[in-house]
Design brief:
single chain, 470 residues, alpha/beta, Leucine Aminopeptidase, subunit E, domain 1, Aminopeptidase, 2 domains, six-stranded mixed sheet, 16 helices, elongated, binds ligand BES, binds zinc ion
């Protein structure tokens, strides 16, 4: 299915169906008001009415603001894909709503059917977006960039959604390698022997019981004369069984999504390189599988991390922070970045604190949090700050090592996980670092907004928007 921006008025475009978004006020004044009313259409947000003979489909919106349009467009595309119409047209509405419209169509229309034996027949071929009287050049730039970011989001979703027997740490290496070739990125991969040379005792311990070798992936996008240098770090647990602190059966289901941070970081560098932003971006991924076995790392083990900080393992299911400890340390040594952002499905506690729809943001810089919050509202991804404090920090104290991998009290688990990572951020980088806990937002079993069942691609739109406006 193609989405095309057309330099025409909507009435001059030839297509089988016309899409219209209507507020309640607009419905009252509409030329089809009577028939829509008879059909029971009240223009409530995300409700639709298809007048097949008229070749018109309507979707209610609370307002013409981005969040409402994105959600309505996501509903609309599902209806059109289920119909037998070949083409549809819609007005761009405005500069800011065009982005929401395209996101709703591309992200809401996403399906992951790789493992279905029967392929679905979709008749819909083209959706035309009419520029109407809005200046075409500006609209075209917005349209092109939105398509890049939305496609990168779906690229991230595709990897997260793939089954864990298929996507293991080595598969992530091949996927990263392929992306680096297609997008002219630099690519360096550290395999287990290299990780041992780097003394990455924390990361190596987590992957020890897996039959798949752990790897650290480093991709770089280096334009000439970059304005800023950014390091993005992703948790890439291709499966999290919990290890010897085994997860209960029901909690293990969906743990293929524990690689979502890594996949998001891949989507981000893809988007940035395709938009050709003048920002140097480095992606660091810790690709590991957390399994059980005779050689598995254990609760009671004391690990020596790359930074020489010793870690008492009290729960092998708190593995993401161990992987990130070494990857963050490596990233800080390898690149002198202006900002370091890590993305991780780190804690169930984050979902308890904020719900499934909001990413948890942690760090020391108020200014950075503020700027990222702005990118959040621009991009339609919801984020909220979880504040550090010295009392929670004390809960990570270990009697026998420098730090424990779990806190001694269960409350504030998302923050104590963030504070564990903070231990591996150098003093000079404290204000440059932000941690994004995407445990709640990266995956969903019930569709919401422009997210369908499965991976959401959380972080990709947010970071693309942040980096674009840097
Ligand atoms: N990958 C999980 C966190 C998670 C849970 C992500 C649910 C998405 C949905 C992480 O490795 C984990 O297991 N964390 C533990 C930490 C605990 C042992 C301190 C958790 O959240 O229970
Ligand atoms: Zn875990
Ligand atoms: Zn995990």
């Amino acid at each position: 299915m193609n989405i095309k921006l057309v330099e025409k008025n909507i009435s001059d475009i030839d297509s089988e169906v016309t899409i219209e978004f209507l507020t309640k006020d607009e419905l009252r004044e509409h030329r089809e008001a009577k028939i829509l009313e008879r059909a029971g259409f009240k223009a409530e947000q995300d409700t639709t009415c298809f007048l097949y003979e008229r070749g018109a489909v309507f979707c209610g919106v609370e307002s013409k603001k981005s969040d409402d349009i994105r959600s309505a467009a996501a509903v609309m595309i599902k209806i059109l894909k289920a119909s037998n119409f070949k083409s549809a047209k819609v007005s761009a509405l405005g500069k800011s709503t065009l982005t929401a419209l395209v996101e709703g169509l591309v992200l809401g229309g996403y399906e992951f059917n790789e493992y279905k034996s029967e392929s679905k027949k979709i008749v819909l071929e083209n959706i035309f977006i009419a520029a109407n009287d809005i200046e075409f050049a500006t609209l075209e730039t917005i349209f092109d960039e939105t398509l890049i970011v939305a496609s990168a989001t779906n690229f991230t979703r595709d990897i997260v959604n793939r089954a864990p027997q298929e996507v293991n740490p080595q598969t992530l290496c091949s996927l990263a390698q392929k992306l680096s070739e297609e997008n002219s990125l630099e690519c360096e991969i550290l395999q287990e022997n290299d990780l041992a040379k780097e003394n990455m005792g924390a990361m190596l311990a987590v992957g020890r019981a897996s039959v798949h070798g752990s790897a650290l992936i480093h991709l770089a996008y280096k334009p000439n004369n970059p304005k800023k240098v950014i390091s993005l770090v992703g948790k890439g647990l291709t499966y999290d069984s919990g290890g010897l602190s085994l997860k209960p059966a029901a909690s293990m289901v969906t743990m293929k999504m524990d690689k979502a941070g890594a996949c998001a970081v891949l989507g981000m560098i893809k988007a940035v390189s395709e938009m050709k932003l003048d920002i140097e971006v480095h992606a660091f991924i810790g690709a590991v599988e957390n399994m059980v076995g005779g050689n598995a790392y254990k609760p009671d083990d004391v690990l020596v991390s790359r930074s020489k900080t010793t870690i008492e393992v009290r729960n092998t299911d708190a593995e993401g922070r161990l992987v990130l400890a070494d990857v963050l340390d490596y990233a800080q040594d390898t690149v002198n970045a202006d900002y370091i952002f890590d993305f991780a499905t780190l804690t169930g506690a984050c979902m308890i604190a904020l719900g499934q729809y909001t990413t948890g943001l942690m760090g020391h810089s108020h200014k950075l949090k503020h700027d990222i919050a702005r990118a959040g509202s621009d991009s339609g991804e919801m984020i909220s700050s979880l504040p550090f404090n010295k009392h929670l920090k004390k809960l990570l104290k270990s009697e026998i090592a420098d730090i424990s991998n779990t806190a001694s009290k269960p409350y504030g688990g998302a923050i104590t996980a963030g504070l564990f990572l903070d231990k591996f951020i150098r003093e000079e980088n404290k204000k440059k670092w932000m941690h994004f806990d995407i445990a709640g937002t990266a995956y969903t079993e019930t569709p919401w907004d422009c997210n369908v069942y499965g991976a959401t691609g959380a972080g990709v739109r947010l970071m693309s928007s942040y980096l674009k406006n840097l």
